[in-house]
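Researcher: Let's run the pair from yesterday's discussion. Sequence first, then tokens, for each.
Model: Starting with the first of the pair.
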Amino acid sequence: MISLSFDDGPHPTETAKILSILRKYSIKATFFTVGKNAELYPDILRQISDEGHEIGNHTFSHDLGKKSTLDTIKDELKTNHEIILKICENEPKLFRPPGGVLNQHTLKEAKEMGYKIVLWNVDTKDWMHRSADEITETVLSDVKSGSIILMHDYISGNTNTAEALERIIPLLLKEGYCFLTVGQLIQCNESL
């Protein structure tokens, strides 16, 4: 069992490509959305939700760091939480800090809001504009049961994420992997 996760969207073209591939293979994934992008593309965020994918909080502006104050963190999390809830009528339960950067304020606020904090253990580094071959090779060499694969559905500039995803999914299915949302994967691990 593994999970595909996509950060930083929604994006008007890249998210649509990814959704099409996931639909083709009947796979559900988790999208950690940025609030300012959700406000720009609410229809795409609603489509993600309507197609049965999980939506997590990735802050409003994607601008948190180790030195962020408690007030900044509260505002970033709560603003995006409300945007997701308003657009999707579905309360997010997962939080992924931008860049995986956590400090005690972020931990405290996420816990108070009832979030499970989610990181990853397979980093495609697709945001570095890597080729589809490089992304695919990274996933195939690093994946194992329980993996959470980090990809992005919003990257500034050109991206090969969708092309790589189209290669990765059939290969992993052939190897016997089952795709779950991150929330489902967490539930399975907690029940063991």
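Model: Moving on to the second of the pair.
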Amino acid sequence: MTTSSSTLANAPVLDATDAKLLALLRDDARAPTAELARKLGLSRTTVQSRMERLQRQRVIAGFTITVPDELEAHLVRAHVLITLAPKRSGAIEQALRKIAEVRVLHSVSGPFDLIAIVAAASIGELDALIDRIGGLDGVERTTSAIVLSTRIQR
């Protein structure tokens, strides 16, 4: 991947405190500002100002939830590698956004164009989901790999 010099010039500059703040927010995005301030050795207003600046710079694009694995342990997860017809990326992305079982979508280099991380209630539902993805107009091929276990998740 290449990055133009204008992109680098516009990239936000993060200091060590910003990096520590982001690490704390990765661990718990709902942590109270006062708790973050205490852990960073800063005032609450300083932490709030940093968070607002990071949001303006789109370093923090939003806050999300992570469902604990034990609540979704019954789901079958898979990575679906997708090859697209030329110039169909935008339409396929929009179609995949509408499929609730698609949890994450990555654009990648190499022989595939996209990798979708999906979750379904059963092998049968996963099979139907993969067929549904493969049937989207502009999808040339899919290859899937069922996740047996997650060894590291950060």
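Researcher: Give me one sentence on the second I can quote.
Model: The chain is about 40% helix and 20% strand.
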